[in-house]
Design a protein that fits this description.
Shape: globular
Strand content: under 5%
Radius of gyration: 18 Å
Structural class: mainly alpha
Order of helices and strands: HHHHHHHHH
Helix content: 55-70%
Number of strands: 0
Largest sheet: none
Amino acid sequence: MSELTVVPVRPPVRGAVIVLDVAAKTMLLLLLMTALRYPELGHLQGKGATARAVGYPLAAFIIPAAWFLLWRRRVTFPWIVDLLVTLTCFTDTLGNRMDLYDTIRRFDDLMHFVNTGALTAAFILLTMSPQASRGQVFERSLAFGVTAALGWEIAEYYAFLSTSGVIDRYADTLGDMALGSLGSVAAGQLVYWAWQHHHLLTAGPQPLNRAPSRSTEF
């Protein structure tokens, strides 16, 4: 992980991020419990409802677990990063619940682009400094994004595509990987732009500083 920097962040922004993060986690768990018990309501029949019910909570709580076990004595909790990771699980589950994947032709493409981008932004914020160059951000975005897109396609295949014959799996996989990679590069450049314009200064969890004159939370 890159060297962490201490920066002030507006309390109202941090408060809004916390509220959104907690709300997204709560709604995610409720949606998953409903989908697991009533797959027809969650529109997850034949779409790996059990795999999502196990994998999504693990993903949504991996940052809190890592912070508690590894970082809590050294850094503040990375709320923005945690929100980005949680939103990827929540939006996919909500999209299925509202049947958007089956009723909107390009919704699946949008989710691959946006959610892989969100995960990439979270990874960059955790592992890079705001002083990183555009080229460095691009390199890490592409490396993480392609890996994440490939990992998702492998998980998706074994969760439900391997037993489904209703779509062209080869074309779907290639398209999803391409969109995920593009979303990652776009997210990385967005983070870089925000750093350059001082809209998003934090590089992830910040070193704890108990001096009352400086705020390190976000």
